[in-house]
Design goal:
- The protein is mainly α.
- The protein has one domain.
- 73% of the residues lie in helices and 0% in strands.
- It has six helices and no strands.
- The N and C termini lie far apart (54 Å).
């Protein structure tokens, strides 16, 4: 019976990215993180169960991750074009971005595994890990969008 509860519950998830997306568009920055996943947990029957929290947070994480990948790709291309016009002695901006992003990914993954470990193998570890991944990914997205605004 337990095997059927997760798929059935996943079909009942009431997720809408609008609360987060609207907040970001209005300039809310960090206070926007988790708005859609929180609304999902509120609107979903059993939204505050381990599975509900994990699924709602993962859906918002997916949105932030796509946004991060888009801004990173565009920024990488812009910096590569700028590097082509720079003198030879200037630091390679694209390479620095790639190195920073790789280091950030390693940091995020280690931090979120640490968050999960705090639960000592308990059921809260899964939602803690997904939530951490969502917050860290969102913060990195906002950093890249602000630090390196696209023209």
């Amino acid at each position: 019976m337990l095997c059927f509860s997760a798929p059935a519950m996943a079909q009942d998830i009431r997720f809408d990215i609008a609360p987060t997306a609207r907040c970001v568009e209005e300039g809310g920055r960090e206070k926007c993180i988790g708005k859609a996943s929180g609304a999902c947990m509120e609107a979903t029957s059993d939204g505050y169960t381990t599975l509900g929290m994990s699924v709602c947070s993962d859906r918002e994480l997916t949105w932030w991750d796509a946004r991060l990948n888009r801004v990173y790709r565009d920024l990488k291309a812009e910096l590569a074009a700028q590097d082509a016009d720079m003198p030879d002695y200037a630091p390679d901006q694209e390479a620095a971005l790639v190195e920073m992003q790789r280091a950030w990914i390693a940091f995020r993954d280690a931090k979120c595994l640490s968050e999960m470990a705090l639960w000592g193998g308990g059921t809260g570890g899964g939602p803690a890990h997904v939530s951490c991944m969502m917050y860290e990914t969102a913060e990195q997205t906002l950093y890249l969008e602000t630090r390196f605004p696209m023209r």
